[in-house]
Design brief:
Elements: H1 7-12, E1 16-25, E2 30-32, E3 51-60, E4 63-70, E5 78-81, E6 100-102, E7 106-111, H2 115-129, H3 136-141, E8 151-154, E9 164-168, E10 174-176, E11 178-182, E12 188-194
Antiparallel strand pairs: 1-3, 2-7, 3-4, 4-12, 5-11, 6-10, 7-9, 8-9, 11-12
Length: 210
C-alpha cells in the first residue's frame, strides 16, 4: 500500500511526498471536498477523536496522486470507502464508487466546523475590498499556495483554530473517492483520497484507465 512505503521506496517508484503540516480537527468530523465549489459538503459518517493530525500529499508525473491524513501508526489491515449520510455501500455495483466532485481542480480535507471560518474570511475580504465580487482562490488562497507542491495548509482566520489542507486534484476536474485505512480492530489509521494518477503505488507510468 502507498501509505506503508518509506521515502526510499517511494523515490524508487518515482513518487515524491510533501508534508503539509497538521490538520486541526476540532470536532473530528471530516469533510473531503473541492473547497472552492462545495466547502459545506457533508462530513463523513465515520469520525475520529478531535486533535491535530499530519497530512501528506503524494506526487507522481508532476501531479498530486493522493492525499493522506494519518491518525495513528501501523499498517491498515483493510480499506473501506468513506461515505457520508445517505450513501449505502450495498447499493454500489461493478466499479462504481462514492466520492466528491471537483470543478475547480482542487481537493481538500477540513473539519466540519471549518467552512464557517472560510465564509467568515470571504465576508472580511468583501468588506475590506468594498467589493462583493470576491473569489476565494484569487483573493485568499492564491497567495498561500506553494507553487512547488501545488498545496497548502491554509488557515482562513489568523488566530483561530481550524485549517484546511488544500491540494490540486490529480489530472484536474473529476470525481474522486476517499478511503479509510483501518486497523484490525476497526480503528482508523489513515484517510486517503485517490486522484487516479498511479496504479499499484507505481508512479513510473500512467494508470491504464485514468
Amino acid at each position: 500500500d502507498l501509505v506503508n512505503l518509506d521515502e526510499a521506496e517511494l523515490a524508487r517508484r518515482n513518487i515524491k511526498i510533501s508534508h503539509l503540516g497538521k490538520l486541526e480537527l476540532q470536532s473530528g468530523r471530516i469533510i473531503a471536498t473541492d473547497p472552492l465549489v462545495q466547502p459545506e459538503r457533508a462530513p463523513f459518517e465515520r469520525t475520529v477523536p478531535p486533535g491535530d493530525f499530519p497530512v501528506t500529499v503524494y506526487e507522481a508525473q508532476g501531479r498530486i496522486a493522493a492525499a493522506v491524513i494519518r491518525f495513528g501508526e501501523g499498517k491498515p489491515e483493510r480499506w473501506e470507502l468513506a461515505t457520508v449520510a445517505g450513501q449505502n455501500l450495498g447499493e454500489l455495483k461493478d466499479d462504481l464508487f462514492f466520492g466528491y466532485g471537483v470543478d475547480a481542480g482542487t481537493g481538500s480535507f477540513m473539519d466540519a466546523d471549518t467552512p464557517a471560518l472560510m465564509q467568515q474570511r470571504l465576508e472580511i475580504e468583501m468588506k475590506t475590498r468594498r467589493n462583493d465580487d470576491v473569489n476565494y482562490y484569487d483573493h485568499v488562497l492564491a497567495a498561500d499556495i506553494d507553487s512547488a507542491t501545488a498545496s497548502v495548509m491554509h488557515r482562513p482566520i489568523e488566530g483561530k483554530r481550524g485549517n484546511v489542507a488544500v491540494f490540486t486534484s490529480g489530472w484536474g476536474d473529476g470525481y474522486y473517492p476517499t478511503f479509510w485505512g483501518l486497523a484490525a480492530n476497526g480503528r482508523p489509521l489513515v484517510l486517503m483520497t485517490d486522484f487516479f494518477v498511479i496504479d499499484n503505488a507505481d508512479g513510473n507510468k500512467e494508470p491504464a484507465n485514468p
